[in-house]
Automatic annotation (TrEMBL):
This is Aspartate/glutamate leucyltransferase. The keyword Phosphoprotein does not apply. Residues 21-91 form the N-end aminoacyl transferase N-terminal domain. GO terms for molecular function: arginyl-tRNA--protein transferase activity; leucyl-tRNA--protein transferase activity. The keyword Aminoacyl-tRNA synthetase does not apply. It comes from Halomonas caseinilytica. It comes from the Bacteria. Keywords: Acyltransferase, Cytoplasm, Transferase. It is found in: Cytoplasm. It catalyses: N-terminal L-glutamyl-[protein] + L-leucyl-tRNA(Leu) = N-terminal L-leucyl-L-glutamyl-[protein] + tRNA(Leu) + H(+); N-terminal L-aspartyl-[protein] + L-leucyl-tRNA(Leu) = N-terminal L-leucyl-L-aspartyl-[protein] + tRNA(Leu) + H(+).
Length: 245
């Protein structure tokens, strides 16, 4: 994204609220989502600005939770320059030193989809992404924009993981990671390693943050995010250090 192009004011954008629906993370709760009008293509810098305000991307959509009476979803990011891997994470980096990394545009790839479908069927057969389909994959993880990227992790020629991320002006935004669920690769903790790879990539690019999306303290599925320390949370309009026990 070029900083020389005039920026579109946030106040000129249109947003819509969804009707209340079942929360995907907290049982018995209702959720409402605030979306940027899908008919309105955000100008240069708008995505960057909305990310600083807690928005995320899914396919062509930019969104954030907007639930009445609930603030459980907390936007979190890793401050790259302050991040220091834990002992466990250092071991993990050493364990995966034999993997090669390749960054590609976020275009459809049959090999990627095959791994994605296997991952969803094996790990998330009880979730709202099951059963997987070509159309679901395309609308979720492919996008014809320069900032949208796919990070491949390979062991020789074998594809082990794909991490979708966006390269913004002030950081990398982790969108989604899927990986080979075979038991022989469990010790590699490929999901965690993908985040560590993005941190190192951001450091190499001179970008200050890696955005991890939303963290919910009560949600076990999101507990891995608090293992990256220090971690910052969006508190209103300010990003502050998240204090964890």
């Amino acid at each position: 994204m070029s900083s020389n192009t005039p920026r579109q004011p946030i106040r000129d954008l249109r947003f819509f609220l969804t009707v209340p629906h079942s929360c995907s993370y907290l049982e018995g709760r209702e959720a409402t989502t605030l979306f940027l009008d899908p008919q309105q293509s955000p100008g240069v810098g708008v995505y960057d600005a909305l990310t600083l305000m807690g928005f995320r991307r899914s396919g062509h959509h930019l969104y954030r939770p907007h639930c009445e009476g609930c603030n459980a979803c907390v936007s979190v990011r890793i401050p790259v320059n302050d991040f220091s891997p834990s002992r466990t994470q250092r071991k993990l980096m050493h364990r995966n030193a034999d993997l090669s990394e390749h960054v590609r545009p976020a275009a459809f790839d049959a090999e990627h989809y095959s791994l994605y479908a296997h991952y969803i069927r094996t790990r998330h057969s009880d979730g709202d992404m099951y059963p997987p389909s070509y159309e679901q994959y395309r609308t979720f993880l492919t996008l014809d924009q320069d900032y949208a990227k796919l990070l491949e992790l390979r062991l020789g020629d074998r594809l082990l993981a794909v991490s979708a991320f966006d390269q913004l002006e002030h950081g990398l935004s982790a969108i989604y990671t899927f990986f080979d669920p075979a038991s022989q690769f469990e010790r590699r903790s490929l999901g965690t390693y993908a985040v560590l790879s993005l941190v190192e990539r951001a450091r190499h690019l001179g970008l200050p943050h890696v955005y991890l999306g939303y963290w919910i303290q009560e949600c076990r599925k999101m507990s891995y995010k608090q293992n990256f320390r220090p971690l910052e949370r969006l508190d209103g309009r300010q990003w502050r250090r998240l204090i964890l026990d």
